[in-house]
Amino acid sequence: MLTIALAITPHTVPSSLAMALDVLRLGNRHAAPRPLAKLLRLSADGRGVDSPLGRWSVDGALDAAERADLLLFPAIGVPEPAVLQDLAPWIEWLRTRRPRRGAATLPRFASICSAAFVLGDAGLLDGRRATTHWSLEQPFRRRYPNARLAIDQMITHDGDIACSGGAYAGVDLCLHLLRLAGGETLARRVANELVFDEQRGPQRRHAPRLPAPDHEDAAIGRLQRWLDSRYAEPLTLAAMAEQLHCSPRSLLRRFKQATGLTPIDYLQRVRVSAAEAQLADPQRTVEAVAWAVGYEDRAAFAKVFKRITGASPASVRRRPDQ
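and the corresponding structure tokens:
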């Protein structure tokens, strides 16, 4: 029988821990009559851990992870430096236990969502494919430049290191672990009981298409609202600048400073957001949607759509929930 240890810290996100335990326990139930894995909850010192939902009991201390086949880190919330400093005992322990470089059937270490930063701080992600929550892409790239971040992926598995994307991508990861340890049929039974669709496309499609309207440039805010209502028109940078009574160069500078995007980038994102909503209508063809949001050429529309969402318009149309 396998042993899977789950690391519990004061920063562990309760829903992430509960989600992982639920999926793995269902795996044990469907693997009956013999459970697939022994599940251990470990803290750094072997004592219970206080959480927003009360005190979590544990089965042992960090050193018990040495005897586990897999050590899984649930999400840790926002991976600020102070949070990672609190997790120093785990990170230092990981630094002395380098993973194998060859192919591995079951990963030795795995992370859900923001817990990828724990593996990253331990140096385990250098040269490896990894993923994390889409909103953490830039801080992850800055902190771990040697990792091969695949932010679009729900899960990555490189050698004996596995990571999952944001939040409920942890279910994808746990199903992947069940598939490796118990086979496709077992993983499918658990997914069916959870009413969980594994064919959900890339993680990037869940990221907001447009920046939050929290800047202080009122004129740029008015232009954004103007673009939001006229995105289907053949707009040019000069036409946008005319709305602000400024030069295109001045508009570029102010718009980028306020929103982090160029005016054309913003316009493309408005169009793609509108297209995603329209693609939900099975009566509308991809060509009709492209035309309705301002593109005369389907190929150009598809290229922009995939760059922003990580998926093609046709694949979005084929999603079971559409």
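(Above: one complete record from the training split.) The chain has two domains: 2-206, 218-318.
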